[in-house]
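chain below, 288 aa
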Amino acid sequence: MADWENLRHFMAVGRNGTLSGAARALKVDHATVSRRLAALEAELDVMLVDRLPRSCRLTAIGQQVFDQAVTMESAADGVARIAQAAHTPLIGKVTLSAPPVLVAHLLAQYLADFRYLYPDVRLSLAAQAQQVSLSRREADVAIRLVRPEETGSFARKVGTMAFGLYARRDYAHREAPDRWQFIAYDESFADMPQQKWLLGIAGARPVACELSDISGHLIAARAGAGVAGLPCFLGDADPDLMQVGEDVPPFSREIWLMVHRDLRRMSSVRAVMDFVVALITQHGGFSA
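prediction:
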């Protein structure tokens, strides 16, 4: 097996293109880099680098060795992150990205409880309809309404959010479905599953208004503007609203909790994940 220090010096040559550049990057002298490179070539019994007058160029086999070494380096860094996470105290900032409806109407209501349980963890809630990248550290933990496919991350289904049609209790046309008017999203949300579901129910009946977020739909329905498709945990909790429509096709969204594998065992991140799971599983408005 090749000596790791020799490989590390070789990678520096491959990245910088010269022995002197590698030496500066590693904060060693030129001779050390040259010696380490020669030692690696002797170990492997292959020529890895063409030494040109002003630069170094990887040979064909050198490029293959370089690519494998980079993969080894990445794996070693991952081991270090996992070890660090295991010893990280229950302190620091954790960013949780979640759909706006869950941030505004569920998570934000329990921030005081979280703070009481974990006074040294600062929970930063990001209400984001779009997906974020955990690998680029755009968030530490994410809640998504579709099954995540990002590589390098751990995902777990934590519940299901059912939807229903809701209208104000004294909505003028509540007992006349053929005269219903609907509260929908604008055209930029045409591909959103709940928009397709709602418009499929509406059919030829008119859309009374369009709003870009679910909180606006709730307020408009409460004001009597029309019939809205709302998460049941939201509509059922509002005393001014009631569920309408007996033959409405069922619709729901899965709730997935996602974290990068390297952060999964970090104490502060684990605390946030456990708190989210407890909220959703214990809340009466969600199913398994």
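The longest helix spans residues 60-86. The CA atoms of residues 103 and 127 lie 6 Å apart.
thats it, cya
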